[in-house]
Specification:
It is a single chain. With 328 residues, this protein is of the alpha/beta class. It has 2 domains: 228 residues, Rossmann fold, CATH 3.40.50; 91 residues, Rossmann fold (3-Layer(aba) Sandwich). It contains 15 helices and 10 strands. The strands form 2 sheets. It has a 6-stranded mixed sheet, sandwiched between helices. Strand 7, helix 9 and strand 8 form a beta-alpha-beta unit. Helix 1 packs across helix 3, helix 1 packs across helix 8 and helix 5 runs parallel beside helix 6. The longest helix has 17 residues. It starts with 9 loop residues before the first helix and ends with a helix.
């Protein structure tokens, strides 16, 4: 692994916290009696959906773009995204006066696309899946000299995202387990580094959709692999595992499970019903995993990351329709 892909340390995370604090307020950590009753344990929900772009990744975007060299700022940045990474880069680029381009798949979430355009990014549509957009993004970066911001293999993104876990454990130091959604894996890698630096006995559990299990299979097999990528949850939709997050997860992630898209949609509805919280599918996946693990988690204080709230109306209707069917 190259020096540019070093594993962030607690020192890096503390530096990131100092860097982003003028721009991003800490997000709340709430416990909801109705969710606690549903799962039979004490659930603490970390509201990353309250951040300016509605998702956790903006922490990393601000931390990285704040540190660009003058030349990189002049040439601008480019990223590939299914939505939240792109919004993070767009938000941070506008904050620091840097031009940005985001390459998205043709069927990208319209709300996320509109948000990126509204923040001043040029949005470039390419390919059916995220991996198609990513390859084209890399070509454009090479051709024009843009600073390419990978959605996973960026130590500064991971260090920025890890500030959420410093906040989480400052608010509730007695958490025994933290459950984190995994797409590319930057959020889970961040959780492992930050949480275990503060409490080496804490368990970090990752969750991915069984319809897009590349990160799960890579973690299980200790090698980077490709896998089918069919999930409805954009934030979990990667067909290829990312090197830097995986290297961190191989060493530090305690457990990893797959849940179905149907379980994720159910968790979206539970968050609406019991916590008055709008979560996108990826943002609800940690609750879906907590419900699956509720017997093992009984009696613990459990941190659950609501990683984002940028759902589409179509997906929200799908979730509500599914729940109505199950009640009939």
């Amino acid at each position: 692994m190259s020096q540019s892909m070093h594993v962030p340390t607690l020192f890096d995370i503390l530096q990131a916290q100092r860097r982003i604090r003028p721009y991003l307020a800490p997000t709340p950590l709430y416990s909801y009696p109705a969710l606690n009753n549903l799962l039979g344990t004490s659930i603490y929900l970390k509201h990353e959906n309250h951040l300016p772009v509605g998702a956790f990744k903006v922490r990393g975007g601000v931390n990285l773009i704040a540190q660009l060299s003058p030349e990189e700022r002049t040439l601008g940045v480019i990223a590939a995204s299914t939505g939240n990474h792109g919004q993070s880069v767009s938000y941070a680029a506008r904050l620091f006066g840097v031009s940005s381009r985001i390459v998205v798949p043709l069927q990208a979430n319209p709300g996320k696309v509109a948000a990126m355009q509204g923040m001043g990014s040029e949005v470039i549509f390419h390919g059916e899946k995220f991996d198609d957009a990513k390859h084209y993004c890399e070509e454009l970066a090479q051709e024009h000299g843009y600073r390419y911001i990978h959605s996973g293999n960026e130590p500064d993104l991971i260090a920025g995202v890890a500030t959420a876990y410093l906040e989480m454990l400052a608010d509730e130091p007695e958490l025994k387990t933290i459950i984190v959604p995994i797409g590319g894996g930057s959020g889970a890698a961040a959780a492992c580094i930050a949480a275990k630096a503060l409490n080496p006995t804490i368990k970090v559990i990752g969750v991915q959709s069984e319809a897009s299990p590349a990160a799960y299979e890579s973690w299980r097999q200790h090698r980077l692999i490709h896998a089918p990528n069919q999930t409805i949850a954009e934030g979990l939709a990667t067909g290829t595992a990312f090197e830097l997050p995986q290297r961190i997860l191989w060493e530090t992630l305690d457990d990893f499970l797959l849940v179905s898209d149907q379980e994720i949609l159910q968790a979206m509805v539970w968050l609406l019903e019991h916590a008055h919280t709008l979560a996108e599918a990826a943002g609800a996946s940690a609750l879906a995993a907590a419900y699956r693990l509720r017997t093992e988690l009984a009696g613990q204080k459990v941190g659950v990351i609501c990683s984002g709230g940028n759902t589409s109306l179509v997906q929200l209707k799908q979730a509500l329709a599914l729940t109505n069917e199950s009640k009939q």
